[in-house]
Amino acid sequence: MSDFSIAVLISGNGSNLQAIIDAIANQRLPTKISLVLSDRETAFGLERAKKANITTRVVNPQNYASKEEFDLALKTVLDEYHPDLIVLAGFMRILGKPFVQHFNQQVINIHPALLPAYKGLNTHERALASHAKIHGTTVHFVTESLDDGPIIAQSSLIIHPDDTPESLKHRVQQLEHTIYPLVISWFAEKKIAWLADGIYFEGKKIPVDGIKANGSPLSRG
Ligand code: GRF
Questions:
Q1: What are 55-99's pLDDT values in tens digits?
Q2: Among 16, 152, 157, 172, which is best to mutate for testing ligand 1, by the most ligand atoms less than 8 A from CB?
Q3: Whole-Å CA distances, 53 to 21, 36, 98, 113
Q4: 120-162 confidence digits (pLDDT tens)
Q5: What is the pTM of this model?
Q6: In the structure, how many helices (H) and strands (E) does the chain have?
Q7: Domain residues for 87?
Q8: Whether the predicted pLDDT of 184 surpasses 50
Q9: Axis crossing angle, helix 15-25 with helix 165-188, rounded to the nearest 10
Q10: Residue 113 domain flag
Q11: Is 99 contained in some domain?
């Protein structure tokens, strides 16, 4: 088994966590998950982790007087497990500057839109409302600014006239379940570097909108 270890942070369903668990089981991802951490006790992803015999912890923000104290508690728990990479997978909290600086270049997130378009919430509704033709998902480094860190990779799809927020969510998540394990495998294989002038993949600088993980936009499906 690989020595490269990740911690996955979740708040909810954990379908991306499941995709990572499955990719490891299928030997597509040379990683071990040392910890699944949730800010919600009821997150279904915790059940997925337990089923896969992965250690789980809950850090409940209601037990802390401030956001700073919550971030510090998160950091303290994560430090116990020494993850090489911290993978945000539907973790619904913004991490502060001390946290991000402590885990410098070690935190990635997946966002359900083609950043820099549609930062924040309700991305599928907003893509439909603005009559976007292309939509998708982005894997990026986490900085202290929401959904704003350097982009590593994107997968895209064509929006169809009959798409709804629900159908888009489903189709975007299908892309996510492929791209996120793939990008994590790049980290495990030491293919990604964040240098002063940008992100590099296997020694070559990548475009600011990241590696296109599915080539041209997918057709329906
Ligand atoms: C994903 O769509 C991801 O892009 C966003 O939150 C969602 C999490 O879904 N950050 P799940 O919990 O992995 O099913």
A1: 999 999 999 999 999 999 999 999 999 999 999 999 999 999 999
A2: 16
A3: 10, 11, 31, 32
A4: 999 999 999 999 999 999 999 999 998 999 999 999 999 999 9
A5: 0.96
A6: 6, 11
A7: 5-212
A8: yes
A9: 40
A10: yes
A11: yes
Three-class DSSP category at 144 = coil
Q: Is 181 in the pocket of ligand 1 (CB under 6 A)?
A: no
Q: Is 154 in the pocket of ligand 1 (CB under 6 A)?
A: no
Amino acid at 209: D
Residue 87 CB-density burial (10 A; 0-12 exposed, 13-18 middle, 19+ buried): buried
Is 153 domain-assigned?
yes
From CA 98, how far away is CA 119, in angstroms rounded?
22
Q: Comparing C-alpha atoms, which of 114, 6, 103 is closest to residue 55?
A: 6
Q: Look at residues 179, 177, 130, 137 and name the one whose alpha carbon lies nearest to residue 156.
A: 137
Q: What is the CATH number of the domain that holds 107?
A: 3.40.50.170
Q: CA 164 to CA 29: how far, in whole Å?
A: 32
- What's the rounded Cα separation, in Å, for the pair 144 and 1? 33
Catalytic, 111? Answer yes
Taking phi over 0 as left and psi of -120 to 50 as alpha, with beta for the rest, 53 belongs to: left
d(CA 147, CA 188): 23
Question: What does each C-alpha distance from 112 to 23, 87, 116, 154, 181 come to in angstroms?
Answer: 20, 15, 11, 10, 15
State the catalytic residue, choosing from 82, 102, 111, 170: 111
Domain assignment present for 219: no
CB of residue 71 inside a 6 A radius of ligand 1: no
Atom of ligand 1 nearest to the CA of 43: 12
